[in-house]
From TrEMBL, chain B:
Domain (ABC transporter) ranges: 5-247
Superkingdom as given in the UniProt entry: Bacteria
UniProt-listed InterPro entries: AAA+_ATPase, ABC_AA/LPS_Transport, ABC_transporter-like_ATP-bd, BCA_ABC_TP_C, P-loop_NTPase
Alphabetical keyword list: ATP-binding, Nucleotide-binding, Transport
One GO MF term: ATP binding
SMART domains: AAA
Protein name in the entry: Amino acid/amide ABC transporter ATP-binding protein 1, HAAT family
Taxonomic path: Bacteria, Pseudomonadati, Pseudomonadota, Alphaproteobacteria, Hyphomicrobiales
Gene Ontology CC: plasma membrane
Automatic annotation (TrEMBL), chain C:
Naturally occurring in which organism (per UniProt): Bosea lupini
GO CC annotations, alphabetized: plasma membrane
CDD domains: TM_PBP1_LivH_like
One Pfam short name: BPD_transp_2
Protein name per UniProt: Amino acid/amide ABC transporter membrane protein 1, HAAT family
TrEMBL record, chain D:
Similarity comment text for this entry: Belongs to the ABC transporter superfamily.
Gene Ontology BP term (one): L-amino acid transport
A Pfam family that the UniProt record links to this protein: ABC_tran
Species this chain originates from: Bosea lupini
PANTHER family the record matches: ABC TRANSPORTER ATP-BINDING PROTEIN, HIGH-AFFINITY BRANCHED-CHAIN AMINO ACID TRANSPORT ATP-BINDING PROTEIN LIVF
Domain ABC transporter: 6-239
Keywords for this protein: Amino-acid transport, ATP-binding, Nucleotide-binding, Transport
Protein name: Branched-chain amino acid transport system ATP-binding protein
Any one GO molecular-function label of the UniProt entry: ATP binding
From TrEMBL, chain E:
Superkingdom of the source species: Bacteria
Cellular compartments per GO CC: plasma membrane
Species of origin: Bosea lupini
Annotated keywords: Cell membrane, Membrane, Transmembrane, Transmembrane helix
Name of the molecule in the record: Amino acid/amide ABC transporter membrane protein 2, HAAT family
Length: 357, 247, 291, 243, 337
């Protein structure tokens, strides 16, 4: 039986390991499902996931290696820094590259074959800024971010959007990846008289800072994007996470039947609660499937064209979980959520419609 | 008689310990001077303080009338002052021959000219002659760390001779050296002394060696100079016998 | 003012964590002249022993005992037997590199064989806060401080006051002569590594509730502890606690009053200053006469 | 003559692949001082290291009081009553002088309740050490370090002492002191095997002498005889004695 | 050099074999294979520099990765702005030499693990500057679109060409290094490592040699960086953090610290072995890699070349053993006469 080869390059070790492994696991889950159901246009999907060590230089080599083997499509990486170098290669070779990165500029660099699996920051940040400025009526906001390409991108994005809405950033606090002690950062926060706090950190750090905020007794609205409202953060932070709100682009906690089913399947296979990065991987595979089915044939050269401008209804392709449309840059449009943590669970308070439903 | 080295009131204290407590004496050009004294009286410390290895607590050192107090050992060496240490100090992973070449190379040309010059810095032959003299030709290519104690001691002394020095300070060169080889060492020392006019200061507990070699002997005790004199005078000095020689 | 005291107390608390791990470094150096670059991972791993034990239904106390036992066997005896013995005679560097490889090995093994996720970890000390000097400090941190001080006093007494301790030091300073005097060199080295294993497993039980159990949590911890050990004085156990406290406090003050972006540089400047002006560390003693 | 205390039969040993002792054979009679002389690099120290289990004997047999002690570890040899004071610097630099000395008694720790007295006796012999008892051993002068080693080596009551060039770095007075101590031990029935380059003085207090060359025992005989052998004097003692 | 090879036919054959592999093997490899080989050449240059500082002169440095970063950033910033490659090369050489020289000063006061941590601090600081000084380095976003140069009208855009370019640089650097360590300087560096106090008393200006060892070694790191940037065509701060410095240290030790060819072998292990292992052990390749490194060190703590030397030393030892037996008049010979 012929096989469809999908090459995956992801952060399986180094600082991005947790993110990258989730991404890979999600993708593998999707492949198992598709293969069990007869494969892609009758052919089994085969995927090997290579470890970029969260190092762009290594990622570049691996994508090169993947392209040398003429894959049907390339999945990953997740970190924007790595994508910037690998996307050049995939773009030159014309192979579709489904990525997990969220940096705004990725789809604006004129690279032709990138397809996202989640909102770029240029879509999520305006929603959050609007929420803070309009719903919370915040005038002063503190931004706490992790100083790597993920955090920096979010910080720059939200800062731009908040300023555009006349909100001042009165504390701009940079933290380190894998930081443990947040006493100083929270003390700074305490001194800055702000109306809301925007937190853009990875899971463990989010949990630690929430605990410290609780310890120092700060009672300000805590706002975040996707990660902060992650089930993992809640598990780690305990009751310190209660009251946290924000925008969630992709969440395994959404009360949508397809997502609940996904969560269930993932836990059955991997024995832990999935996060949004795993959904990116999962959706990535199904995006490739959707594009292929639209073409009706396995044509690597035509896949990108098939995906751009594609709209998929979850009803037609349950693997896509939600209705989604992909624009000419490879950016997505689909529903998002406003959520709040209540009693240790994320509660979706509002479902934000897609921009062009 | 011209003085090569003048030691003026050198003191070296370690916390409360007065290892050297005000030592003054001169070393005349061309002489072989013995320095003896009980264990722990401060001989090695004096050497170290004079030769820039330790910073003296007080006092001054003059070489050829110029103040060299606290001058770095490397510069002193290039001024023609050579030395050995009491504890074995060879380069264990380098061959015997390399040890000797190294001992001389920094005295030839400048750093840059050495970089562009020959690999052995023009010292290969001199090193081989030195090796042959100390009857170590069969060991020339061996790692110095694998030599026996006495052989290392000889190598150490030979290294001090490699640079064609004007002033040599030896700290117990004879310890552990076979009596026959000791004769050779003495001979070499005298030769350098007479041919090159080099001056020697020798710390040694081997009285036969000191008394047969030195023109003058300085005796130290408890960080100070106890006596200075010819070997015969020293041998007869009751204070020295009591503190040092015994019997 | 209350901010300031929060920072100080918080810093002391973090510093105590560094200290607990730094003691291990100092001990290994003093008693076997080895440097273990996997020390951070040594603290990471026991937490997973405990998680596995608890996952199999063991109560906390039993899991803790199992953890210590496993650590003694794996991080103590096996480590010494397989990695230290062949390399101890060849100087510090090969050993340092081997332990770096060991760190990768441990991290990757936990990640691939257990999970890449972070896990919460139950605390020995209740997770409650105490107000001290207007600052909130958690009981967990107090537990750590007490442990650190206790470990230092205990180990210092062992090393300085008992014959066994002096035999351990002698073994480290000159193994050949130690052997020749009939000191059971092998056993002394083993003892050192077993003590270190007990130390790291206790540290792990104390620290993991705060750090979370994750394969990568040893990285920063190991480095910080190492820096603390150097600042305090590598050859003095009590230096570890001084270095740890100083590092923790300075880190906090720097983050609050200097630049958050360059915060991690500040402890390093202190390190450089200490090393250059007191090369043997704040509490350390000069190693020995050189000429 | 009584049966030998120590006997080497065809011992082969060396460093790595280098063979230094090649079939070395000699025996040491009980209760006397035997001095080993020979040129530098003859393998004298190597013999001691091999006897004391610091270097493996590749062939041959080493017997002590009739018992085979070939390649036993130092711990067992100490227990059997052999002690060894090596050449060079052998201290624990960062421990205090007193602790350095005490470590000489670890193998006897439990049965030795008079340790303080023994240390006191060592201090009497080498008063400089008493003064320095609590300082770090590395700060001692060269000769003081040697005194420390000798004091440590003589702490127990051995039956056989291997002592490698004790006179290096010691002042003439202390050399006399050390030789006197060895003579005292001999009087107490201890057998002493001594390596000395300070050979004339050593041979004068010795009963027997052994000439070692190229790793082989060349001559064994009464000390006085060897001291006056012209050939030995020329090769190993720097010529005939002047007096 | 030629004479040296002639005297040892085995070594000569080996050298020719290696040269053939380096020249012709790439022709048979994929783009990825060539990319990794070029990476090996680049890392070998950096490790060779560290081998000078550490292996020969005995000064522990955990900052080599930072110098690779300095070279890479200089190159990225300048070539993206249209400068030809030789401009950043010259700048890097000057800059790394100067910074390396300054970094050597602490080594005059402290040694071993203390020195390791001073240099480690510098490496961390360099990383922070790369990350935080956005106006210059574009911070965490990194610099992309770094052009590969054109040499004598040949574009190095092609992977094979860039590999040969890197190889040429490796050969140049190795040649310079060989000359250096075989000059009296090499002996002085070794003396510095083995016994600085004694070296000083023999007139070796340990200050200047220490600083030189740092400066030259660091410069080689910088040169490696100059090649790294166009090789990867993108840089951000992450690859130049501590792990790179550690990894370079690993290359030196595993290959054989103080052996001329050690770094090349070490880089083989650190750069190519993991890639090779990927194909056999999949997800577990890092575990396998770490395990292999440990086994290697357990088996030969002095590195691969240390092991080789011990093997070849046998013959020499046997010769020396014989030389001893034939030396100096003996009592037997005397009495026979
Ligand atoms: N670094 C130091 N710290 C403390 N005391 C020291 C130090 N160096 C030397 N001393 C002390 O200074 C005294 C003199 O030592 P020194 O080594 O100069 O003696 P010496 O005359 O060379 O003796 P020897 O003949 O035994 O070599 C000794 O008592 C020694 O303990
Ligand atoms: N560690 C070692 N490694 C290699 N060879 C060694 C080692 N130690 C000694 N040798 C060699 O063994 C031979 C005998 O050395 P040994 O130390 O036994 O001589 P020795 O008779 O004690 O001389 P000395 O009177 O100088 O102390 C020497 O030629 C020496 O080169
Ligand atoms: Mg002295
Ligand atoms: Mg000897």
């Amino acid at each position: 039986q012929a096989q469809v080869k999908i090459a995956c390059v992801s952060e399986l070790s180094g600082p991005g390991a947790t993110v990258g492994i989730n991404f890979r696991n999600g993708a593998n889950l999707a492949i198992d499902e598709i293969n069990a159901a007869g494969g892609l246009l009758g052919q089994k999907i085969e995927m090997n996931c290579a470890d970029s060590q969260t190092n762009p230089g290594v990622a570049r080599g691996l994508v090169q290696k993947a392209l040398d083997a003429n894959p049907y499509a390339v999945l990953g990486p997740v970190y924007s820094g790595s994508i910037k170098v690998t996307a050049q290669l995939t773009s030159e070779s014309g192979v579709t590259n489904v990525i997990g990165g969220e940096a705004a500029e990725l789809t604006q660099m004129g690279l032709k074959t990138l397809i996202r699996t989640s909102f770029g920051q240029q879509i999520s940040m305006p929603k959050l800024a609007a929420y803070m400025a309009d719903d919370l009526k915040a005038k002063n906001v503190a931004v706490i971010w992790v100083n790597n390409d993920f955090g920096k991108g979010g910080r720059d994005g939200i800062t731009k959007e908040l300023k555009a809405r006349g909100v001042t950033i009165s504390a701009d606090i940079s933290t380190e990846a894998a930081q443990v002690d947040f006493a100083a950062d929270v003390a700074k926060l305490k001194q800055a008289e702000v109306d809301a706090v925007f937190i853009y950190l990875h899971e463990e750090e989010s949990a630690r800072i929430l605990k410290e905020i609780q310890k120092q007794g700060i009672k300000k609205p805590l706002i975040g994007e996707t990660t902060l409202l992650n089930q993992k953060v809640i598990e780690l932070a305990g009751d310190a996470a209660n009251g946290v709100r924000g925008h969630v682009g992709l969440t395994a906690d959404a009360p949508i039947p397809s997502i609940e089913a996904y969560r269930h399947k993932f836990m059955a296979k991997y024995n832990y609660v999935p996060d949004h990065n795993s959904m990116k991987g999962y959706l990535g595979i199904y995006t490739i499937k959707a594009g292929t089915q639209k073409m009706g044939k396995l044509d690597p050269k035509g896949l990108t064209a098939a995906l751009k401008g594609l709209s998929v209804k979850a009803a037609d392709e349950p693997g896509m979980l939600m209705d989604v449309s992909i624009d000419q840059n490879g950016d997505l449009d689909r529903i998002g959520f406003l959520a709040e943590v209540q009693n240790g669970t994320t509660v979706i308070t509002k479902t934000l419609p897609a921009l062009k439903p | 008689m011209t003085k090569v080295l003048e030691i003026h009131g050198i003191k070296k204290h370690f916390g409360g310990i007065r290892a050297v407590d005000g030592v003054s004496f001169d070393v005349n050009k061309g002489e072989i001077l013995g320095l003896i004294g009980p264990n722990g009286c401060g001989k090695s410390t004096l050497f170290n303080a004079v030769l820039g290895q330790l910073e003296p607590t007080a006092g001054r050192v003059m070489l050829d009338g110029h103040d060299i107090t606290g001058m770095r050992p490397a510069r002193l060496s290039r001024l023609g002052v050579s030395r050995t240490f009491q504890l074995l100090q060879v380069f264990p992973e380098m061959s015997v021959r390399e040890n000797l070449i190294l001992a001389g190379q920094e005295h030839r040309g400048t750093m840059v000219s050495r970089l562009f010059g020959p690999r052995d810095a023009g010292l290969g032959e001199a090193a081989d002659r030195m090796i042959a003299f100390f009857k170590m030709s069969h060991l020339a290519g061996e790692k110095a760390g694998g030599l026996s104690y006495g052989q290392q001691k000889l190598l150490d002394a030979a290294m001090a001779f490699m640079a064609g020095p004007r002033l040599v300070l030896l700290d117990e060169p004879a310890g552990g050296v076979n009596l026959t080889m000791l004769g050779a060492l003495k001979e070499r020392l005298r030769a350098i002394n007479s041919e090159l006019g080099a001056t020697f200061v020798v710390i040694e507990h081997n009285m036969e060696f000191v008394m047969s070699l030195c023109q003058r002997v300085v005796v130290m005790a408890e960080g100070r100079v106890l006596a200075i004199g010819t070997p015969a005078e020293i041998r007869a000095n009751p204070a020295v016998i009591d503190a040092y020689l015994g019997h | 003012m209350s901010t300031f005291s929060t920072l100080i107390v918080g810093g002391l608390a973090t510093g105590a964590i560094y200290a607990v791990v730094a003691i291990g470094f100092a001990l290994l150096w003093q008693a076997s002249q080895t440097i273990n670059f996997a020390q951070g991972e040594f603290v990471m791993l026991p937490a997973f022993f405990a998680l596995i034990a608890m996952g199999m239904g063991a109560p906390y106390w039993l899991a803790a005992l199992v953890t210590i036992g496993m650590s003694v066997v794996i991080l103590g005896a096996m480590f010494k037997q397989m990695l230290v013995d062949p390399m101890i005679k060849h100087g510090v560097l090969p050993m340092a590199i081997a332990t770096m490889a060991l760190a990768i090995f441990m991290k990757e093994s936990v990640k691939d064989l257990y999970s890449a996720e972070a896990y919460p970890f139950p605390s020995l000390v209740p997770d409650r806060n105490l107000a001290i000097l207007g600052a909130n400090i958690s009981l967990q941190h107090i537990g750590i401080i007490v442990t650190a001080i206790g470990a230092i006093i205990g180990l210092t007494l062992l090393l300085e006051r008992t014959s066994i301790g002096r035999q351990m030091q002698a073994t480290a300073q000159n193994p050949t002569v130690a052997r020749l005097l009939g000191i059971p060199v092998e056993r002394m080295i083993l003892l050192t590594f077993v003590i270190n294993a007990v130390l790291v497993s206790i540290a792990s039980l104390l620290v993991t509730p705060i750090y979370l159990a994750k394969f990568s949590s040893g990285e920063t911890l190991g480095l910080a502890a190492f820096i603390a050990a150097i600042i305090g004085g590598f050859n003095q156990l009590r230096g570890a606690i001084i270095g740890g406290f100083l590092l923790g406090v300075v880190d906090n003050l720097a983050a609050a009053y200097i630049s958050t972006q360059y915060r991690s540089a500040v402890p390093l400047f202190i390190l450089i200053a200490v090393i250059l002006f007191r090369p043997h560390g704040i509490a350390g003693r000069k190693e020995e006469r050189t000429v | 003559m009584s049966e030998p205390v120590l006997a080497l039969e065809n011992v082969t040993a060396g460093y790595g692949r280098m063979t230094i002792l090649n079939g070395t054979t000699f025996s040491v009679p009980r209760g006397g001082i035997t001095t080993v002389i020979g040129p530098n690099g003859a393998g004298k120290s190597t013999v001691f290291k091999t006897i004391f289990g610091m270097l493996p004997a590749r062939a041959g047999r080493i017997g002590f009081e009739g018992r085979d002690i070939t390649n036993l570890p130092p711990r067992d040899l100490l227990a059997a009553g052999i002690c060894y004071i090596p050449q060079g610097r052998n201290i624990f630099p960062q421990l205090s002088v007193r602790h350095n000395i005490e470590l000489g008694a670890v193998t006897a720790a439990r049965r030795l309740d008079d340790l303080p007295r023994r240390i006191e006796r060592a201090f009497e012999r080498f008063p400089a050490l008493r003064e320095k008892a609590s300082v770090q051993a590395s700060t001692l002068s060269g000769g003081q370090q040697k005194q420390l080693e000798i004091a440590r080596g003589l702490l127990l009551d051995p039956k056989l002492i291997l002592i490698d060039e004790p006179s290096i770095g010691l002042s003439p007075k202390l050399v006399q002191e050390t030789f006197a101590a060895l003579q005292e031990l001999r009087a107490a029935g201890v057998t002493i095997l001594l390596i000395e380059q300070n050979a004339r003085s050593a041979l004068e207090i010795s009963d027997h002498a052994l000439v070692l060359e190229l790793g082989q025992a060349r001559i064994f005989g009464p000390a006085k005889e060897i001291l006056h052998d012209p050939r030995v004097a020329e090769l190993f003692l720097g010529g005939l004695a002047h007096d | 050099m030629i004479a040296l090879l002639r005297s040892r036919p085995a070594a000569c054959a080996l050298a020719i074999g290696v040269a053939c592999i380096l020249l012709f093997l790439p022709l048979t490899l994929s783009r990825f294979g060539n990319y990794m080989l070029a990476m090996w050449a680049v890392m070998t240059i950096a490790a060779m520099g560290l081998n000078l500082t550490l292996g020969y002169a005995g000064q522990v440095s955990l900052a080599q990765g930072a110098f690779v970063g300095i070279g890479a950033y200089a190159t990225a910033i300048m070539t993206v702005n249209g400068w030809p490659l030789y401009a950043p090369l010259l700048l890097t050489v000057a800059l790394c030499f100067a910074i390396g020289w300054l970094l050597g000063y602490p080594a005059l006061r402290v040694q071993h693990h203390y020195l390791a941590f001073v240099t480690l601090s510098f490496a961390t600081l360099a990383y922070l500057v790369f990350r935080n000084e956005e106006w210059l380095t574009k911070g965490t976003y990194g610099i992309f679109g770094i052009p590969r140069p054109t040499l004598f009208g040949v574009s190095l855009k092609h992977h094979l060409n860039f590999y040969y370019f890197s190889l040429a640089w490796l050969v140049i650097c190795a040649g310079l290094m060989l000359w250096l360590v075989n000059s009296p300087w090499g002996r002085a560096f070794t003396a510095l490592r083995e016994n600085p106090a004694r070296a000083q008393s023999l007139g070796v200006d340990t200050r200047r040699y220490t600083l030189m060892a740092f400066a030259i070694g660091s410069t080689m790191g910088g040169v490696a960086g100059v090649l790294y940037a166009p090789l990867v065509e993108f840089i951000d701060p992450n690859p130049f953090g501590l792990p790179l410095s550690f990894s370079l240290l690993l290359m030196v030790i595993v290959g054989g610290s103080g052996y001329f060819l050690g770094p090349a072998l070490g880089a083989l292990i650190a750069v190519l072995l993991p890639e090779w292992l990927r194909d056999y052990t999949q997800g577990y390749y890092l575990i396998a890699y770490a395990l292999l490194v440990m086994v290697l060190l357990i088996y030969s703590p002095s590195g691969i070349l240390g092991w080789v030397e011990r093997r070849t030393a046998d013959a020499r030892t046997r010769r020396a053993s014989l030389a001893r037996q034939a030396a100096v008049p003996t009592y037997d010979a005397g009495s026979a006469s």
